[in-house]
Design a protein that fits this description.
Helices cover about 55% and strands about 0% of the residues. It has helices at about 10-35, 45, 50-65. The relative contact order is 0.06.
Amino acid sequence: MKWGGYRSATAKKKAIIVVAHALAVIIWHILATGKPYHELGADYFTTRLDPGRETRRLIAKLEALGHQVTLQPAA
């Protein structure tokens, strides 16, 4: 029985490279700044987005796909 979620050896190698790169960047920043590592949190990228800008981006994307968008305030 084969364990793991990778369909090919190439995908597994790419995943290893991505994780190694992330670790290398973290280590470089720690050594370059002398500051300890600070985890930004799981929701860092979702909370830093400007809701108005994200709304406009998504509307433009839907309209580019041929949809007509009308917004209504949430109840």
